Structure formats: structure tokens, C-alpha cells
Amino acid sequence: MKIGLIGFGKAGKAVANVILGSKDFSLEWVLKNKPESGFLTAKEALNIEADDESVIYSRSEIDIDRFFEMHPVDLIVDFSDAESILQYGSSAARHGVKIISAISHYQDDQITFLKELAKTTTVFWSPNITLGVNYLLFAASLLKNIAPGVDIELIEEHFKAKSGVSGTAVRIAETLDLESESINSVRAGGIVGKHEVIFGFPYQTVRLVHESISREAFGSGALFVAENIKDKKEGFYNFEDILKPYFFDQASSLS
Amino acid sequence: MKIGLIGFGKAGKAVANVILGSKDFSLEWVLKNKPESGFLTAKEALNIEADDESVIYSRSEIDIDRFFEMHPVDLIVDFSDAESILQYGSSAARHGVKIISAISHYQDDQITFLKELAKTTTVFWSPNITLGVNYLLFAASLLKNIAPGVDIELIEEHFKAKSGVSGTAVRIAETLDLESESINSVRAGGIVGKHEVIFGFPYQTVRLVHESISREAFGSGALFVAENIKDKKEGFYNFEDILKPYFFDQASSLS
Amino acid sequence: MKIGLIGFGKAGKAVANVILGSKDFSLEWVLKNKPESGFLTAKEALNIEADDESVIYSRSEIDIDRFFEMHPVDLIVDFSDAESILQYGSSAARHGVKIISAISHYQDDQITFLKELAKTTTVFWSPNITLGVNYLLFAASLLKNIAPGVDIELIEEHFKAKSGVSGTAVRIAETLDLESESINSVRAGGIVGKHEVIFGFPYQTVRLVHESISREAFGSGALFVAENIKDKKEGFYNFEDILKPYFFDQASSLS
Amino acid sequence: MKIGLIGFGKAGKAVANVILGSKDFSLEWVLKNKPESGFLTAKEALNIEADDESVIYSRSEIDIDRFFEMHPVDLIVDFSDAESILQYGSSAARHGVKIISAISHYQDDQITFLKELAKTTTVFWSPNITLGVNYLLFAASLLKNIAPGVDIELIEEHFKAKSGVSGTAVRIAETLDLESESINSVRAGGIVGKHEVIFGFPYQTVRLVHESISREAFGSGALFVAENIKDKKEGFYNFEDILKPYFFDQASSLS
To answer: Can you give the residue ranges of the Dihydrodipicolinate reductase C-terminal domain (chains A, B, C, D) (predicted)?
Structure first.
């Protein structure tokens, strides 16, 4: 499966790292804003041995339509910025390229555009594309569904410099309908990222904990999604759509 | 909903405690092996103020069929021993009384008998009747289903004197297909009971943790089951059957 | 070592429980405010088999001076209220009885009185008499001493109904000089009590965690103190005074 | 304070990273086995902006005595291999350069040599040079000293591929006199490194937890040691010698 990566910042590099290390996927090219100084390919820039081409192109220097013809891929993984979908979206859809976007925030008109593209190709969007966090959301809302009256609190821990409540914590709180008093933010040293949902029952406690080790988790998440949407038809998908089939399998296998 | 409780050992007393404290359920009577010295009712024995009758009877002194006529209940909760189903089962079924059994181990012929009763009335059996542990099993096997290759390890912690691997840990290991090397048993001081399933991904870790606070969790679990089987027809049910509908609700609510 | 216990509320009963179960200490009597209805001894009231006399007396019905003559003890353990020291203090000091007080708060004049008593007998006071919490305070302030610039956060978890920040958390925060923003209070279900001090370094994290299982920890703490002050002369002691010698032993044994 | 670094493997690079980022220390040079291909300085190799010279030299190409004259430093930090002390040790001692060695294992004769050098200069050796792990050892053995009968168990978690019990776990077990049954090794995914010492008391549990975030912790540890030995006379020191003064400060500040 041939992948084109948009964006080569910290997250983008970590994602390239994972794709380059995967046997089932090939990183054909990377499209970035500014030309990479000194490196022609992602594998050079990241010092990884791989067969993937992984040539780095600059967004400002290409004609996108011609680019897709010259450098065909099955799938685009987008870790750049909200605007870039406007540049590559229509061309990608026209060439039948599936799109996986991990952009944190889109404007309403950009979401409308994504949905428009989804009439022609497969479009997936998740603001947090790690498997662990999405599973946590799923499993936590299941338990709340089973026990609506249970006390729920959230502890999120990150490095000292991180300001504000983490985006993931906000999403968990929204999903579980938590008041802001129930979100406890710990900022200390170099903690990469930890989210712990505490379900307090009168005589027992259940904790769901997600710990981030590195940004490469975004890469694993993107490939997990790629694997799961490769046979999907055009349409607009999110992470729940990907997880739900496992859910039903699970439920049936237990019967 | 009128409940009759079979068994008044440590677990049985904790269960009585929870039923007596509940508004929606009434503890009509307790059936125990030996007569309780000095106390006529469970509420006296446990020093709880409640309207429930909760009269304590001795199994050896009653005619079970006549007993069900004189002291009708909707539901039996059984925390006694594997044999007692043979005493009360047929009478209960004949009188349309639902049965919730929390017996740890049944012989094969006893299970056959349970299934026979299930042709006439609603029979539920779970060797560990806490909501938390059953949810953990469910949620853990879901994640394994999603990520079959993930590394899974189990840590179970209990008080120093507990010998052998905990029954719950064995059940988790069976459900997740873990080797015995992946079960880590910690025995220290007075730890009531903790089970932690660790899912190790390359760039992130997910932990599902259950901590027991007290035996009353069995009571909450029994009442949760009671609430969920009250409208169920005759048949043989386990905890997964109870959780599954929440699961499907959940899955549909996310679409 | 003969012990007299003042106070027979929830904490007092838990302490009696531990003393009755100990070989090295004997519970001679319990002094409580209201007469215990129905029970003459603590061992009856708690349903424990023990050789200890453990007779329950009512404070209002005795002449305290005569009481100490008739029922001599080596040590008083006080889990009652701040006022009771005024009743028994002078008599105890006169009879050479050591005093261990676990009263949460004393008025200034009561502390002055304690120090006055300490000129004649051994007086120990700690508002939280568990070994674990006092060790935590000690070990945490040591690490802060070693690494003054480290980020410190505190998470304290208790049952839903507990209002306000826990007294132990306040004490930890004072000892470590934490701002109130660094105290995270989780209230959920029936959590007995957990305190976690997080030391965040740039490239590593250290966590000191104390989990309460039951109030009996107060009893163990009282006996630990009793063991450690039995050879101490008159004077006013706190928990640090008890721990410090182990500290120096430790430091020397490592050299 | 001018530092020379011996060794430029994974750990050595992480240490260089920390020294280059520090204001109080200057990385004068790095001595490595093989010449670094393409990079003349550590700051180039690690892509860090810094004023430090940090020139990379190859061990095979220099005359060590002349090298110390031409490139004077106050301190050597050694993250290379057990043999290299034989090359640079005598010269360093002759030039009054202090030595901090973080080599995991030395042969007996190498340790004898270190002690010989310690007659002339300040020599520090610790097989695990992180502050967190050494604090953990210290704090854990203190608690064991206070409560000799407490149940102690150890859980160590590392990435799947790590074989055998971790060296740190072995050291903790030796220090606390634990049987091998009490060491629980979890291997899952990409866990960087976690050590948890559990102290189980009858009614409470104390946990001391160390979590590694990255190898840079070795660098922080080395600089912590450098800061603490800079005024020390000749002699052979270990991490306990460094921590002990804080300990005594601590104990006195509490009196």
C-alpha cells in the first residue's frame, strides 16, 4: 500500500518513522511546506534504512494535479495543517486516493469540504489518531452506559510546560459528560502524557489508563486506520466507525 | 422486588448488607446452614435499620416447598455452596422464582441441573458477580480483539496469606489466552484485591485496573444482575449476556 | 505492656481491634463517653477472643485518680476528643503513665498543657498516627531537599462524600510547600484513601503512594509509637522524633 | 565547570545532550572509539546550538597525556566501557581531573585501579547514575529499616525485547534482601522502564515508583554528581555518599 505523507513536523516525522519501518506500507513521498535543508528523502532525514522512496517535496514548488499523476499513491496521511486539505483534496479525490487526516481542528467550511470529498473517495478524520486513546473513549463510555450513576474523575498528566487542559482530556470529558471540576491536570517534569479515567463505585474502583511513550503512536494509529479503511467505499469515517466492527465481533464471540 | 438470600457467610453477610440498604429491593429472608446464635433477623445481625423482614431460617429445619409458599419471593440470590441448589432449585423453579447464583465452582452434574431449571425459570450464574471484574473481562477482550498482536501482562495483588493465583486472575488469563508466565502475583500485607491488565503497544500503554474495596461489591453485582434479569424469560444466563445489550446500545449510539 | 484506651468511636474501635490482636500489648480498659449498651468489654463488643481484660468504663462515672490506682497501665492511647486530656492528663502524669495522643486538633492552651505534662512523663502527639503517612512525609521532604527545583504535585483520592481537601493532603502540602493548585482532589465511590506525591524530573518521574486499607492502620501506628517510646524519658515527642533514629541508623549502615 | 566525556553511544549521546543544554557546565570534548563520520563536534552531531566546544576525538588517534595538557578539563564523565579507565585514568589523576564513572560492571582489578586513582583524585562510581533510582534505593531501605517485618514485592516493567531481570531490579532486590519470587518482571510493548517497590502492611500499602522517560536521566544524574563532588577531596565515592548529607540535613531540619 503506497502512502503519501503531508506534513513533516515533529508528528509528521514520527509518522514517517513508523511507515518506513513497516513491511506492509511504503512511504512514496512527503510533502512539506519548506524544503528540507540538506535531505532529499525522509529515510535520509530520519537516518533509517528502508526501500521506500520517501522523496521530500515542497508544497510551494509543485503542481498538485500533475504531482498525483507522476507519483501515484493509494492513500494520503495528513499531519500538516487545516488549510492543506484545500490544496490537495480535490486532486486526491479525483485520482481515487483515500485520505486519512489527523488534523486537530478544522473550521466548519473545511469539514464541509471534507464531507464533499467523501462523496467521491474514502475520507477519514480523527483529531487524535492513536488507537489507545480512541479505545479508552470507547471503553469508558461503555462503562458509563452500563453504570450511569457511577462517579467519574479524570487525571491527566503532562510535562510542566504544557499549558491548558490537554485536548484529549477535553475530548474524554465531553464524551463522558464530566464537569470541569472532575478534570485534574498534573504538570510535572517531562511526563510525556498520561490519561487516567477513574470509575468510583461504592465497593470497587475501575481505572482505565493510557500512557503515551512517543509520538510514533500517531504513526501506528494511522497505519491501523489505513489497514481498516483500505476496503471501505467512499464516505466520511471517524475512529468509532473503525472500532465498531471489532465491538460487534466481540459481542457475538461471547454469545 | 422481594429477595431471598441463601448463605450467610462473609460474602452472604456483605450481600445482605447491600440489599438491606437498597430502596428497590427487599430482603425477605435468609436461609443458612446453622442457626444464627442470638439473632433472629439479618438486620439485627448486621446492626442495620431497615424495613425488610430479613428473617433468618435454618436450612435443616424447613420443608422447602412449604417454605416457598409461606414466604414468597421474586428472586433467590445464592452465596452458599454448590450443593444447596439441589435442595431449593426445583421448588424455586416450580414457584416461578428467578435464581441468581454466585457459587464459585459447580460440578458438571450441578451445571446440568441448573440448565434443566433454566427451562422453567430464569437462571443466572457467575462465579465472580462483581460488575467491575466482568466489565474488565469484556473491555480487555475487546482490546485484544482489536489488536491481536499486542503484548498482554496481568498483575494481581492480594493479601499475604492468599495462596495460589486468584480465581479472577485465572479467569482473565483464560479469557485473554495468557501464558502463566504473564501472570504476576503480588502478595503483600492486607491488600484487598487488585487486578491490572497491561496492554503494551510499541509507543503507548493501556492499563485496565480493578480494585476491590470490600465484599459488598458482590451485593452490588447481584442487584445489578437482578435489575437486568427481572424482565427476562426462562433461560440460562451469564454476565456477558447482561452486559451485551449495553454494548450494542453503545455501539449504535456512537454511529 | 499494659494499655488504657481513651475513646471508642470508629477509630477507637479499630485501635482496640489491633491491640487485642497483639501479643506484646494488653488492652486493660477502655474509657468512653457514653456507656456501651450491652457490652462490658471491648473484646465482646468487637467479637474478638483475647486474654486482655478490656473492660469498658464510662468517663462520667469514675473518679479518675482513683481509677488509675485501681487499674494501673503503662500507657494511654487517646483517640477521643481534644478536651479529654484535661480530665486524665494530670492523673496519668502523676502515676507515671506515658501518653500517646492521636487527636486531630488541639487548641493552643491544650498544647501548652500537653507540654506541661511532658515535664513529668513521656508525651507523644501526632494528628495522623499511621506509619505510612508519616514515612511518606519524611521521604518526600528528603527528595525535595535533594532536588529543590523538582516539580511536585499531589493527588489525593477519597470516597465521594468526603468534603474539602483531606487533612493528610493539607499536611503534605505544608511540608512540601505546595501551592493549592498542586493539590488534586479526586472524590469517587468508596475509595478509602490514597495519597500520591508526584516528583516530575525532566527525564524521570518518582511517585510516593500511600493507600489506606482500613482504620486499623491507626492501631498499628499507635503500637509502633508505643514500642518506640517505651524507653524514652519524659518529654514531648512527635512522629519525626520516632523516625529519626532509623534514619541515622540507615545513613550510617550505608557508609 | 569543564567536562570531558568518554563514550558516545546511546547513553553517551544523551549525556552530551544534557551537558550541552546546561549553563553551569561546558562540554569541552568527547572521546570515542571510532571517529564520528561526518561530524566534528557533539553539538553538530546532536543538532544542538551551544557555545561548548564539544570537539569529538578518537581514542585511537591521541596521546592521552598530551591530550590532557592541550585540552584541560575539571571533570571526566565516563559512559564508555570498563577498559577505558585503564587508558585515561592515570593521566587524569596526574592532571587533577575528577572522574565520574557510570560503567555498569568493572572487573575486580579495575575496581582496585579505581581505588588506587582515588588516592590522588576524586573518583566517583555508580552503575546506575540516575537520581531517581538511587533515591528509591535509599528511601526503600529506610522503610525496611523502620518496619523490618513488612512484606516487600517489586514490579519492574520494560519493553518486550528486554531479556532477563533488569539490573536496577537486581540491585533493588539485593538492597532490600528480596527473594527472586518477589521480583515480578513485566515485558510489554515499548515501556521505557518502571520500577515499583510495594510495601504491604496489614492495613495500608506504601508504593515507591520510579519511571524512566529517557536516557537523558543519566545526564542529569551525572551533573547532579558533578555538582556534589566538585568540592570533595580525593577519595572513592558512590551515590550513597552523595545523598547522605541531604539525609542528615533533612533529619536535623525536622528537629
So the answer is: 133-243
